[in-house]
Amino acid sequence: MRAFVLIAFTLFAMGCTRNVPLAGEDRALTAWVDPFIGVEIGNTLPGATLPFGMVRLSPDVAPPNHTTGYRSDRPIRGFSHNHLSGTGGGARYGNVLVIPQTEPADLFPEPEKVDEYARPGYYSVLLREYGTEIRCELTAARRVGFHRYTFSKPAGSMTSEELLRGYVPDATIRGRILIDASAIINMVEAEATHNVKSAVRIRSDREMEGYGRFRGGWGGENPYAIYFAARFARPFDACGTWKDSRFSEDSLAEGTQVGGWCEFLLPQRGQVELQVAISYISTEQAWRNLDEERMTDFDLVRNRADSIWNRSLHSIRVEGGTPEQKTVFYTGLYHALTMPADLGKDENPQWQSDERHFWDFYTIWDTYRTVMPLYTLILPERQREIIRCLLDIYEHRGWLPDAWTAGDYAYVQGGSNADVVIADAVVKHLGGFDVARAYEAVKKNADVMSDDPYKYGRDLYEYEKYGYLSTHVKNGSSKSLEYAYDDFCVGQVAASLGREWERDHYMQRSDCWLNLFDPQTRFFWAKDIEGEWAPGFSPTFRRPDYWNGPYFYEGTPWNYATYVPHDMRRLIGLHGGAGPFVAFLDELFDGGHYEIGNEPGFLTPYLYHYAGRPDRSAERVRNLLEEFTVGRRGLPGQDDSGAMSAWYLFGAMGFFPVAGQDVYLIGSPLFEQSTLMLENGARFTVKAPGASRQNKYVRRAVLNGKEWNRNWFTHADLVDGGELFLEMGPTPSQWGQTLPPPSLSDE
Fold first, then answer.
1. Which residues, other chains included, contact 301 with Cβ-Cβ below 8 Å and sequence gap of 6+?
2. Would you say the C-alpha torsion 50, 52, 53, 56 has a positive or negative sign?
3. Cβ(120)–Cβ(33) under 8 Å?
4. What ranges make up the beta strands (E) of 372-470?
5. Boundary residue ending a domain (264, 295, 311)
């Protein structure tokens, strides 16, 4: 029966998936994924989850730790059900913590950990304490976490008599499971989440339920509640609750430090399995989520998770390259599909809607550059759902979010970046959402002063009055540059609706970046309200707490020196032409001023294209791609909801999106062939035979059967399928030097 269920599910999944691999294609792409890549510098999540899963079941370690609750050098405390991946700032979540242990009872255990293993949808580790080993295994459905704990005594802990007998008598291991209803990820720093109130109840001889109410973390208080329903595969031999470290046999506990416990008398290698469903609505909804999960067998659920991930990873196929590059690539794709969390249509605690709701846009300032353009290509229906969710938030809360977590606005990091996401979808004719409604939302960002510009909208008073944000506004210079690009994006949406006057208005206002460009230094800098330059200019100016400004957010003047993605032609002209601009970029890179580890620089290595030197872009991008490696420190910066990983994906495939515009820049592929599975069964393939570390220069291009001398192409060139053929070589050529990508001043 179980085998039949698995076969039936697999057939159903194949029928619902538009991209069925061709006969003979390798289906084991999950074998290339290493979830431990980037867990340190990149803050990626090692635990078990599904693509966009609401449950992200992963180990939490004793503090101090990362925002994922994990660090390689810390002992594991337990396994909780909701996490972020790749983020910085103060931690959130780490709720409903399951703690397996033996004697004595300990709310803060620090067992020895060995033999960690992870694969998409599965995590395993061996914990050792008090002469007992606990093999901990985790897998996940969309709203349910599955646990399997195997308790055993290693040979070294047995008595001589037991060893002579050759077995361990039955019921010699006392296995205990704690469920901490008040658990959080405690980073021991500011912005930490804190528990408001929790409760847990023993519901039967194999069931527990409870809830926790929390607030705090990066982005503000954002109060939320999480409810859980836990069902064990075997009845308890003893059970109870605890409050403030005091254990009892009571069936109910309430407070700020509470949980439930249960014990099992087990034979050697005795197993305890449990399923934990979560809900952000109610305990009753958590039980419904649990009961709707038809599979209960741990191995079947694990195999299903592997199958689901395998189907998702098949959205891109790469051939050639090294095994390490393939591992980094598919792990990057895995990371790009981990967030945001899909709450569906019935788990939004704030309002009811016919739209799917997502938590943890963390943040659009990061993901608009790479992740969302990636979804537009390989998951267009998911991108439509995301945009409709953003508009649904606007409908119910009044503003488009830049960051949305735990059901509320978090911090704006730059401009009103949902403007870019919507413009990107409009110019690529993604469809599936109300463009007029979307224009209303982005127009509000552009025209209406926000009452809380650090949470949503824009700080428009000075921008409209002076054409820039002055030294009085934190991060005013970088925000001014981003507002200028946002205005360009709003203008494009206006144009799509035939509103030419409004289009011209926003396009003219998108020139405001000129107000902070200093022709003497060729950098952007800061001005006061009188229009005078702030003293103390340095191209490397940055405070230690650089996220707090004063003039540029998370960067130096070098980092923002080229941020005019809508009018590179004019910026190049202000530098004196293509030659001086190329020299400026060379100084940026060769002087050690470039930082791939932060999103404002994602487009910068490709900007040589606009000066007619795609060969220089190829050199810079190829060097940067080598900073992505296997290993726990394998990412050059925080992954930021897959933004860093998606940057690698595009670079490795050989083209890069200019987010918010209908432009893809042709780069230097790592792989000899990359195939994207597009909508309606179409496929777009980049072929680069002979691509290697030496053969990194494009010498000739053919797009869909036509000789292609431009170093860029449009979405229409690939969306119906086709092929980009690149002839690669070890030395630069004249290819791509005469027809640069479009700029606003071309008009």
1. 139, 140, 141, 146, 295
2. positive
3. yes
4. 404-405, 408-409
5. 311
pLDDT at 14: 34
Residues 413 and 517 in one domain: yes
- Report which secondary-structure segment, H or E, holds 328: helix 323-336
Q: Using the predicted structure, report yes or no on whether residue 19 has a pLDDT greater than 70.
A: no
Check: CB of residue 563 under 8 Å from CB of residue 510.
Answer: no
Residues 6 or more apart whose CB falls under 8 angstroms from that of 553 comprise: 413, 414, 475, 478, 479, 546, 547, 600
Q: Residue 650: name the closest of 438, 390, 374, 414 by CA.
A: 374
**DSSP SS3 for 341:** strand
Q: Quick one: how far is CA 193 from the chain centroid?
A: 20
Residues 6+ apart with CB under 8 A from 77: 60, 61, 62, 97, 99, 108, 109, 110
DSSP codes, 61-77? ESSS--TTS--TTS-EE
Count other C-beta atoms under 10 Å from residue 320's C-beta. 18
Query: SS3 of 174, please?
Result: strand
Identify the CA nearest to 441 among candidates 390, 484, 508: 390
Please write the tens of the pLDDT for every residue from 31-56: 999 999 999 999 999 999 999 999 99
The CA-atom distances, in angstroms, between 414 and each of 421, 426, 524, 552, 554 are 14, 22, 16, 9, 10
Query: Both 306 and 320 in a single domain?
Result: no
Picking from 151, 142, 149, 124, the residue whose alpha carbon sits closest to that of residue 58 is 124
Q: Does 158 have pLDDT greater than 70? A: no
Over residues 596-600, the mean pLDDT reads 90
Q: Are residues 331 and 416 located together in one domain of the fold?
A: yes
Q: Which pLDDT tens digit goes with each residue over 370-406? A: 999 999 999 999 999 999 999 999 999 999 999 999 9
Residue 8, pLDDT score: 38
**Measured distance CA(34)–CA(40) in Å, rounded:** 13
Give the position of tokens 């926000």.
450
Give the domain range for residue 87: 2-311
Cα(533)–Cα(536) distance, integer angstroms: 9
What are the tokens at 628?
């992505």
Q: Residue 535, Cβ neighbours under 10 Å: how many?
A: 8
Digit-coded pLDDT (tens) for 291-334: 999 899 999 999 999 999 999 999 999 999 999 999 999 999 99
Instruction: Tell me the two tokens of residue 659.
Output: 């987010």
Domain boundary among 311, 334, 365: 311
Q: Which amino acid is at 14?
A: M
Rounded Cα distance between 143 and 50, Å, is 9
Give the total residue count for the chain.
747
